[in-house]
Specification:
Helix 1 crosses helix 9. The protein is 34% helix and 32% strand. The two termini are 27 Å apart. By secondary structure, the chain is an alpha/beta fold. It has 9 helices and 9 strands. The chain has a 9-stranded mixed sheet with strand order 2-3-1-4-9-5-8-6-7, with helices on both faces. The protein folds into 2 domains: 119 residues, D-Maltodextrin-Binding Protein, domain 2; 88 residues, Periplasmic binding protein-like II (D-Maltodextrin-Binding Protein, domain 2, 3-Layer(aba) Sandwich), CATH 3.40.190.10. Bound molecules: adenosine-5'-triphosphate and magnesium ion.
């Protein structure tokens, strides 16, 4: 049995064509079903549907053989015990620093001010600002980061941006780009050794399908 860990939403939707290329069709739509384990047309392949941030954990411990997770999530997890053979180039966006236009980010950085940074991505934010020599107080949030500068919880946020419409809707602007984000295939290292005959053809098919 091969278990593939996926999150609902954009990652599931953008993974469907890759699964199809490998001849795999889920038996149910996770957006409609409440089931956490979904079978496929292949009796030896099943999907588990979990939170995006939990995908590396299930794969690391071998509860799933494969998974698909954003680079953002993998950086925060640390990638321990994971083999990361492929950038699937799906769920693409950018990790950005954003602020209210009334906050002069450039000046704050130039003057060596201590920045209050609200984010879900503590490791990414810590590394980025430390490399720039900017001192920060990190404030951990779990979502809706755009609110933080509006109610003066923070000077800036570090968040994912694709179209920019959420920033715009909340009157924020991006002030710096941290990195490009896309989703990667992650594989449990022991699974790759023990189930190579099943897993390698999947990796090969995915690699062809993304080209
Ligand atoms: P939840 O929304 O359930 O709190 P989440 O925000 O981690 O969890 P998604 O919004 O489905 O889950 O994001 C899953 C992955 O998709 C993220 O880890 C990231 O790599 C990518 N992603 C997030 N936001 C965007 C976006 N606006 N455009 C493209 N990809 C994105
Ligand atoms: Mg989200």
């Amino acid at each position: 049995m091969i278990t593939i860990a996926l999150s609902k939403g954009r990652i599931f939707q953008e993974t469907l064509p890759l699964l199809a290329a490998a001849g795999i069709t889920p038996n149910e739509d996770p957006e409609k079903s409440r089931k956490l384990i979904i079978g496929t047309n292949k009796p030896d392949v099943r999907l588990i549907i979990i939170r995006a941030t939990d995908v590396p954990t299930y794969v690391q411990h071998g509860a799933a053989d494969l998974g698909i997770a954003g680079k953002d999530v993998l950086i925060e997890h640390g990638g321990e015990g994971l083999y990361q053979p492929l950038d699937l180039k799906i769920a693409r966006c950018k990790m950005m620093v954003a602020a209210h236009p009334a906050f002069d980010y450039e000046q704050a950085v130039r003057q060596g001010a201590r920045l209050r940074v609200a984010t879900k991505y503590l490791n990414t934010a810590r590394e980025y600002f430390s490399a720039k020599g900017v001192h920060v107080d990190l404030i951990k949030l779990y979502g809706s980061m755009e609110l933080a500068p509006l109610v003066k919880l923070a000077d800036v946020i570090v968040d994912l941006v694709s179209s920019g419409s959420t920033l715009k809707a909340n009157g924020l602007v991006s002030v710096a780009e941290i990195m490009d984000i896309s989703s990667r295939l992650v594989v449990n290292q022991a699974s790759l050794k023990l189930k190579r005959a099943e897993i390698q053809p999947l990796l090969d098919t995915f690699e062809l399908a993304i080209k």
